[in-house]
């Protein structure tokens, strides 16, 4: 009944499972104590015995209890949900499942990563699904002797003309001169899109930026060294 009521109230599925398990364990303990009481066994002694056994189990399962507590915090505070794309402890992927002791991610290479909840809550969590848009970034180098205005326009055009690039009052594609390197002037392109389209847009922009620069005869230089030989 409790599960059905919470489902109708659209309570998070993980929270329903957690509360259901806690309720089942609590009811089981109460039933055991009541049954032993009817058999004439002192309920005070039984309660003390269960408490002592619980303490011993808690000490032996300290790490698992830490994961359990962290799982409760994840469910209560919801830093992420199933389906969100997150980065934590050096791993990133879509949240596949949230259990009481572990959280599993599905990476972009279709690998499953299982993380203890204590590790998840003990590290910084980057949730890319919280906000509606994310940024794709392309960095390219151009020759020092090129026309920078033409180069920036060619780079920016790749984003502006792409159908997955979102352009609105708050977010606009932009190209900046971000560094003066040893061999090239660095141009950085920013483009905004939905999280589900970020990887596609990123790959497309990499290709289109190169093509656009070639169309306006701007070279993308590579590292080189000049060697001067001096005869003594």
In short:
With 232 residues, the protein is α+β, with helices and mostly antiparallel strands. It has 7 helices and 8 strands; from the N terminus they run H-H-H-H-E-E-E-E-H-E-E-H-E-E-H.
Question: Would you mind describing this structure in some detail?
Answer:
About 45% of the residues lie in helices and about 20% in strands. It has about 230 residues and is of the alpha+beta class. Among the domains are: about 1-60; about 135-215, Alpha-Beta Plaits (2-Layer Sandwich), CATH 3.30.70. The chain has a five-stranded antiparallel sheet with strand order 4-3-2-1-5. β1 and β2 form a beta hairpin. The longest helix is centred in the first third of the chain and has 26 residues, at about 15-40. The model has no long low-confidence stretch (mean pLDDT about 85). Homoheptamer. Pfam families: MS_channel_2nd, MS_channel_3rd. Its main location: membrane.
Annotation keywords:
single chain, 232 residues, alpha+beta, Alpha-Beta Plaits, 5-stranded antiparallel β-sheet, 3-stranded antiparallel β-sheet, 7 helices
Distance between the termini: 95 Å
- For the biggest β-sheet, the strand order reads 4-3-2-1-5
H/I helix tally: 7
Q: What is the arithmetic mean of pLDDT? A: 83
Q: Major sheet, described briefly? A: 5 strands, antiparallel
Number of DSSP-assigned strands: 8
How do the SSEs run, as a string of H and E? Answer: HHHHEEEEHEEHEEH
User: Under the CATH scheme, which architecture of the domain at 133-215 would be assigned?
Assistant: 2-Layer Sandwich
